[in-house]
Structures are given as C-alpha cells and as structure tokens.
Amino acid sequence: MPSVSISPASALRALYWGAALLLLAAWLGPAVPQPQDFHAFADQRAWGALPHALDVLSNLGFAWAAVAGARLLLDRRSQALALAPALRWLAALFFTGLACSAIGSSVYHWAPHDATLAGDRLGMSMAFAGMLGLALQSRIADRVAVRAAVAMLVAAVASVLVWLHGGNLLPWALVQGGGMLAVLGLACVAPRHGALALRLGAVIAWYGAAKLLEWGDAAVFEATAGLVSGHSLKHVVAAAAALPVITALRAAGTARMTITGTMCADACGHGGATNR
Description:
Layout: H1 8-28, H2 53-57, H3 60-74, H4 85-110, H5 114-139, H6 142-166, H7 170-186, H8 200-215, H9 217-223, H10 230-240, H11 243-275
Helix pairs in contact: 1-7, 3-4, 3-10, 3-11, 4-5, 4-6, 5-6, 5-7, 6-7, 8-10
Transmembrane segments: 57-74, 86-111, 117-137, 144-164, 170-189
Keywords: Membrane, Transmembrane, Transmembrane helix
Organism: Delftia acidovorans
C-alpha cells in the first residue's frame, strides 16, 4: 500500500475539518430511527437458562483480548512497562473498552432492548476512541493521538445519548463510520519512526470482516444449517482486531527495553573507561 508523509499540524487540521463536517452532517442530516427489528437476531436458541446463548458466549473473545492487554500493560515482568506514557494510556483506553464491550454486549444479548444496547455502545465508544488514538500515535504524534482519542470518546458517548433519548441513530453512525474512515486513511500514511508499529491494514481487515458478518447474520445462520449465526461470528472476528495491537505493543516494549539497555551499557562502559 502506498504511503505518504503528513505533519502533525496537517493531521490535526484534517481531524478538525473532518470532525466539523461530521458535526454538520449530524446537525443538518435527517433523523434516522433504529430499525424496529434491530433486536431480532437470527440465533434465538437458549442453552438451559441462558437465552441467546451463542450471541452471549461469543463475547468471551472480547474478554480474552481485554485480559491479554491488561496483563501486558500491568505485568511487572512485561517489557510493555517501558512504553511511553501516552501510548500506555491509549492502550489502556482500548483494552478497557474491550472489557466494557464484553460485559455490555453480553448483557445486551441476554436481554436485548434499547437500554442494554446503550451500555453495549458505550463500551464500544471507548474501544473505538482507543483504536483511533493508537492509529494516530503510530502514524502522526502522541499529542495529536491523545487529543483525538478524547474527542472521539466524548463524541461517541454524546451520540449514544442522543440516540437513547431522541431516537436518532445518525450521530452514532457518523461517529463510528468517521472513525473507521480516519483509520483507513491513516493506513496509507508511512509509520512514524520510534512509534507503535501497528499494522492498520490487519485491523481494518478484521473489522471489515466483522461488519460483513453482522450484516449477514441470518444468511450465515442459514448457510451453516443453524450451526452459528453471523452475529455470533462477528463478535469473535471483531475481538481478533485486537491481535495486531497486542503484537505491536509487545514488540514496542521489547524494542524500548533493548534501546534502554544499550544506552545504559554504553554509559557504564564510558564511565568505566573514564575511571581507568
């Protein structure tokens, strides 16, 4: 994929313009109600006392990714402790969002209605904000990444509240779609030296596959003769989008520890030579 070079100032201006256009579209665009059959998923099977069993249990993928990320960031034996503060904060936001999504989506599919769906979407808001921030950190600059992540989180939460209290789904759709378009654009930007080596193409591929499975919920259920639905598979595939993040964070921690160790060794060697 061809890459281009963009300065942090240019990226910040592009983000401001993009946010302004999305805000204008949300303000002037027509109200989009949520479809009446939104909560009617293809797989309605229960396992004992567990309703919509596979749609609930498939959220374990998000929980696994969240736990893996938390262990990476908190384990004292992990090289990720050496990560820069901004990168650690963005990663923590992303993995916290995955944990909240695991809980929120499980509760929602246990009892699907608008109130539980709002909780699910609030968890997704954190994950989306963290992912956008990580993408910007890997391509542009730490400061831009943190600002954009905070703005994305505020906008996403606001869009959920607008939908919950006013019934208009358009702001949520614009925030979600706009965020992924930004990540798609950043995938064409050359990685920043010394930043997180995040494979955005892999993240986009996993997310795109998850959306296709979501849209083909009933079709997948029918094609598999009722074995599994598209929505259940969507949870598993969407959780896999965390794998490139985990891999990149491990590599970044190792690289930073190696550089630090080399600098210490050089300093000690220089000091020893001076003493001699």
